């Protein structure tokens, strides 16, 4: 178990600046996720932590040790790839034993450790199978066992579940969480799936074109996004461009599409803003301390465990409300009048991001 620190890590590939000075602190024993869209630099960051690639400048520390230029085999971080990269001509046992054989450990110890790792990933009894005789999820487990058997200080997982079907993905992500807790190991996990990141992580770093936009617990990131990018990346949400037209202390009045909302908390300097409101915070009945917006129903969508009402307001502004109560939407039909209510404390105003 070790903590990991990245200090001003810069990495370029030709003209592409993949990492623009990344700073991160990952606590010992936490499951830390790098979350962001394709091409934002997640894999590059992971490869640099693994020692499979080196930064142009900046440093990586494991505990107090500067490992920036330490070869991968010497730093005790193991990377599990998206495609598992198992040896097709080796049995499950030999795949998992591979790293231990390289280290020339005694046969008995190798056997003991491989058994331990296979038990951990619930693959006891599969020792003599070949990778082609395993399902995707089982192959993924072998890859994880192979990484864990060398007792790494840090386990790095790059989109480990993206080749699995939806159901197996849910199962495997709980498995990864269980194993991480059982071993108390530091895990750095990469995904572009915000729901997966929220479910599995102690903390998340949201990345955007080579920078880290925000680091926090899943709740922090979801409920208190610090930038427009983070707000809109974390699930389906209402992000409405608006303008600050009045200020009284830390309260403002904003305007969009001919609609004015007053008494909202905002202390930023910029007048060009976005209003962020999570759909589940938009209510179809009056609530305390609320702003209200009246318009017409555009759509009512049934998702099983929740229902969404899309309202149409002002000049073509669509806002989504989400409810788990059938009663809330009883009789609501497209083109009918509707009023949405949002507690002022549930409205987040952020400076509009430059595009
Ligand atoms: N070996 C390379 N040569 C040139 N450019 C590269 C190389 N590796 C990565 N890049 C570029 O660096 C940027 C970051 O790539 P990276 O693979 O880290 O993204 P990512 O966040 O892992 O994306 P994805 O979700 O698609 O895997 C991208 O613009 C990519 O094209
Ligand atoms: Mg990647």
Overview features:
binds magnesium ion, Rossmann fold, OB fold (Dihydrolipoamide Acetyltransferase, E2P), 5-stranded antiparallel β-sheet, binds adenosine-5'-triphosphate, elongated, alpha+beta, 6-stranded mixed β-sheet, 355 residues
Question: How is the secondary structure organized here?
Answer:
Layout: E1 4-13, E2 16-26, E3 31-35, H1 42-50, E4 57-62, E5 65-66, H2 72-75, E6 77-80, H3 92-102, H4 107-120, H5 136-148, E7 154-158, H6 166-183, E8 186-191, H7 194-200, E9 203-208, E10 211-216, H8 218-223, H9 228-233, E11 238-248, E12 251-256, E13 259-265, E14 272-277, E15 290-302, E16 307-313, E17 317-323, H10 326-329, E18 337-343, E19 348-351
Parallel strand pairs: 3-8, 3-9, 6-7, 7-8
Antiparallel strand pairs: 1-2, 1-4, 4-5, 9-10, 11-12, 11-14, 12-13, 14-19, 15-16, 15-18, 16-17
Bound molecules: adenosine-5'-triphosphate (ATP) and magnesium ion.
Magnesium ion binds at residues 42-43.
Oligomeric state, counting identical vs distinct chains: single chain
Uncertain runs with pLDDT below 50, 5 residues or more? none
**Rg, alpha carbons:** 25 Å
The CATH architecture of the largest domain would be: 3-Layer(aba) Sandwich
Biggest sheet statistics: 6 strands, mixed
Widest beta sheet: strand line-up: 6-7-8-3-9-10
* Portion in strands: 35-45%
Structural summary, described in words:
This protein is of the alpha+beta class and 355 residues long. It has 2 domains: 4-230, P-loop containing nucleotide triphosphate hydrolases (Rossmann fold); 238-351, Beta Barrel (OB fold (Dihydrolipoamide Acetyltransferase, E2P)), CATH 2.40.50.140. The protein has helices spanning 42-50, 72-75, 92-102, 107-120, 136-148, 166-183, 194-200, 218-223, 228-233, 326-329, and strands at 4-13, 16-26, 31-35, 57-62, 65-66, 77-80, 154-158, 186-191, 203-208, 211-216, 238-248, 251-256, 259-265, 272-277, 290-302, 307-313, 317-323, 337-343, 348-351. The strands form 4 sheets. A 6-stranded mixed beta sheet has the order 6-7-8-3-9-10, sandwiched between helices. The chain has a 5-stranded antiparallel beta sheet with strand order 13-12-11-14-19. A 4-stranded antiparallel beta sheet has the order 2-1-4-5, with helices on one face. Strand 4 and strand 5 form a beta hairpin. It is elongated and about 75 Å long. It starts with a strand and ends with a strand. The mean pLDDT is 94. Residues 13, 16, 18, 36, 38-44, 192 line the site of adenosine-5'-triphosphate (ATP).
